[in-house]
Amino acid sequence: MSKLSLYDFKILSDYEQYDVVFSEGTFIDAIVEENTRYALYAVDLFFIEIEYDVARNKIVSKTSFVTGEKLNRYSKFI
User: Fold this and answer.
1) Strand 36-43 with 46-53, pairing
2) What does the pLDDT look like over 46-73, one tens digit per residue?
């Protein structure tokens, strides 16, 4: 099976994106800041950060990227 590109991931529906992250993604690490938990996953050639509201036990957002500031914040843990 070919690798999923970031572009191909972004054109999927939200439901399909979450399915890819949670079924095919590799959990890398998590950061907790106050009532928010950020979980980093790797999928093929890019990363996805899932933001959880701990108090409401709910996913708030997801961000996909290849490099940059979001990825750098996890580098102290790697």
Assistant:
1) antiparallel
2) 999 999 999 999 999 999 999 878 888 8
